[in-house]
Write a structure and sequence with these properties.
The complex is a heterotrimer of chains A (139), B (295) and C (146).
Chain A: E1 15-18, E2 21-27, H1 32-49, E3 53-60, H2 66-81, E4 85-89, H3 93-102, E5 110-112, H4 115-123
Parallel strand pairs in A: 2-3, 3-4, 4-5
Antiparallel strand pairs in A: 1-2
Helix pairs in contact in A: 1-2
Chain B: H1 2-6, H2 13-23, H3 25-33, H4 36-39, H5 46-65, H6 75-78, H7 81-93, H8 98-106, H9 109-119, H10 125-169, E1 173-176, E2 179-185, H11 190-206, E3 211-218, H12 224-240, E4 243-247, H13 251-259, E5 267-269, H14 272-283
Parallel strand pairs in B: 2-3, 3-4, 4-5
Antiparallel strand pairs in B: 1-2
Helix pairs in contact in B: 2-5, 2-10, 3-5, 7-10, 8-10, 9-10, 11-12
Chain C: E1 3-13, H1 16-32, H2 37-56, E2 61-70, E3 73-82, H3 90-93, H4 107-114, E4 117-123, E5 127-135
Antiparallel strand pairs in C: 1-2, 2-3, 3-5, 4-5
Helix pairs in contact in C: 1-2, 2-4
Classes of the chains: A alpha/beta (139), B alpha/beta (295), C alpha+beta (146).
Chain lengths: 139, 295, 146
């Protein structure tokens, strides 16, 4: 069921289309420019395909610094403007602890434990689970 | 000593002590074997205590030979460190305080000093004084070495116990499919909060838990540092895609948190049971009580 | 008092690519010294923030990594140096949310929270040096085998 959109250009992160969702898998250490390129690619792909969800799997990412954190937050914000929801899935404990310590809680980001859980979230008609605190959905 | 007198000059005090230790090795060992420190540690036979004493005498002689009577790092001591540590540990196990062990070590000195005094009866008084000073210093250094060794043992023991305590004190329990909990008991310090955070988040990954419950019923006080750690744990869990619930906040802790002006932006429940109930409800697994009869 | 057990490496910070090298080098050095996974991640993240500052605000520079040892404890010190415009108001630069570039304003203040020691020297017009130090936690923590 995967009509693919993979673009194995060096320095590019492949964006895969799975039905109504774009799937992005980040791996290892990302160059700043690669991350920025991805942000641009995603905006274009969402608008071209009209998908309603973006799933970013970061289980293979060893560090998220404030730059990558900002890119992720901006991807979510721009996807929202294009009527798509973004879920970031599979953040490692060490990365999450570091971000919390750094003070980057990325309140606008919807998260999931795994790609499966993320897919489930995106496929739900009702709005996904969100903490019942005073958190806002958008940054 | 006859040979010293023969060429009309005396050996240096430390070398005199060395020769004395070699010469009186057997007698010193016999006397030390009756001292509590050796007698109570080497209990198999008196010979064992004598042999152990001889090892220490030999080490002292070697240190005196190298003229390093004031140096606890002298090579001569390295051979007896382990034995001293074992002796110290055995005495501690027998319930003696550090001070008592230290005074038992000090008790080794008088018998040796008396022997030295009687050996050098005919020597000039200044020489005797110099020699017994050298011996006193040497015995003092031995005590220092023994205490150092014991201290590093205690340090290692206390580190091990702290580690064990942290592991024992932070068990992560799987309450339900997708729900883990850590019941915290006792005072939380920064190091322990860190361990709690890591253990809980690792469990979230291992158990695919969407809900992580931090139960602080057993925590007497929370200061601002600990509250911050709790907040970081909550934030980190959310980044991973799980939700934290804090349960069992005591009235006093709630007051403290408000007084500290902290904004504890987190879901709370009165008890662990309520927290589990909330998590199950969110997971779509409601518990019904069949005993209630009517539905 | 601690002794520097030797400068491990000196890496240039001139481009995007160099940031990746800095991160990889710090990760390996920290792993070699016995840092746990979480501590490694914190240190690498701090290095990434500071190296990006050096690149973006300082116009490039270098990072020097030094292995420290003090009474049995092992540590890693990272020094980031640039000859850029310097920082006029350090207090402001160190406050949360302050940004002169396009980050989230967490660079300096965030990096400071991730390390044990943080020290900054800056002369307007002359450049900036940031030194951070991390020590391997003692006793070594369990369950950080990954």
């Amino acid at each position: 069921m995967s009509d693919a959109y993979s673009r194995p250009v060096p320095g590019h992160v492949p964006v895969l289309r799975l039905g109504d969702v774009l799937l992005v898998t980040l791996q290892g250490d990302l160059h700043d420019s690669t991350a920025q390129q991805l942000q641009q690619d995603l905006a274009e792909t969402i608008s071209r395909t009209g998908v309603h969800g973006v799933l970013i799997d970061i289980s293979g990412v060893e560090i998220v610094d404030s730059f990558l954190g900002r890119v992720l937050a901006e991807i979510a914000a721009q996807a929202k403007l294009l009527a798509a929801r973004t879920v970031v899935a599979g953040m490692r404990p060490a990365v999450a602890i570091t971000l919390a310590e750094l003070g980057l809680t990325l309140p606008g980001l919807t998260t999931a434990l795994s790609t499966e859980a993320g897919m489930e979230l995106l496929s739900q008609q009702t709005p996904a689970y969100r903490p019942r605190g005073p958190r806002q959905e958008s940054p | 000593m006859p040979e010293h007198e023969a060429d009309g000059q005396l050996a240096t005090p430390t070398h005199e002590v060395r020769d004395f230790l070699h010469r009186r090795r057997e007698q010193i060992a016999q006397r030390w074997a009756d001292e509590p420190l050796f007698r109570t540690v080497f209990t198999v036979s008196r010979d064992e205590a004598v042999e152990a004493s001889k090892v220490v005498v030999d080490a002292l002689a070697q240190v005196a030979d190298s003229e390093q009577v004031e140096d606890p790092d002298a090579a001569g001591f390295s051979g007896v460190r382990e034995q001293l540590a074992r002796m110290g540990a055995a005495r501690s196990r027998a319930g003696l305080s550090n001070t008592q062990v230290a005074s038992e070590l000090a008790a080794l000195r008088p018998p040796v000093e008396n022997l030295l005094a009687s050996d050098l009866e005919d020597a000039p008084p200044e020489h005797l004084r110099a020699c017994s000073t050298a011996l006193t210093v040497l015995m003092g250094t031995l005590r220092l070495v023994a205490m150092q060794t014991a201290l590093s043992e205690w340090q290692a023991l206390s580190d091990r116990q702290r580690l064990q305590l942290m592991e024992v004190a932070t068990p992560v329990i799987r309450l339900w499919d997708g729900v883990v909990a850590v019941p915290l008991i006792g005072t939380l310090d920064s190091a322990r909060s860190q361990v709690v955070m890591e253990t809980l988040l690792n469990a979230v990954v291992d158990q695919h838990a969407r809900f992580a419950i931090l139960d602080i019923t057993g925590v007497p006080t929370v200061d601002s540092l600990v509250a911050q750690h709790l907040m970081k744990t909550v934030a980190a869990a959310r980044l991973m895609g799980a939700q934290c619930i804090v349960s069992g906040i005591r009235p006093a802790i709630a007051q403290t948190i408000v007084h500290l002006g902290l904004d504890l932006d987190v879901i709370t429940r009165a008890s662990l049971a309520d927290a589990l109930g909330y998590a199950l409800h969110e997971l779509g697994t409601d518990i019904v009580n069949p005993g209630a009869g009517q539905r | 008092m601690h002794t520097a057990a030797g400068v491990e490496a000196c890496l240039p910070i001139r481009s995007d690519m160099d940031l990746v090298w800095v991160r990889q080098h710090v990760r390996q050095a920290a792993a070699r010294l016995g840092f746990g996974l979480v501590e490694q991640t914190k240190l690498v993240t701090a290095a990434s923030e500071l190296a990006r500052n050096t690149l973006v605000h300082g116009g490039g520079g270098q990072m020097e990594a030094t292995h420290l040892s003090s009474g049995g404890a092992q540590g890693l010190r990272l020094a980031f140096t640039d000859e850029g415009p310097g920082i006029a108001d350090l207090d402001q630069a160190l406050s949360d949310g302050y940004t002169s570039g396009d980050g989230l304003g967490m660079g300096l203040s965030g990096a400071r929270r991730l390390v044990h020691d943080f020290d900054i020297e800056s002369t307007p017009g002359d450049g900036t040096t940031v030194r951070v130090t991390c020590w391997v936690a003692q006793p070594p923590r369990p369950r950080e085998e990954a």
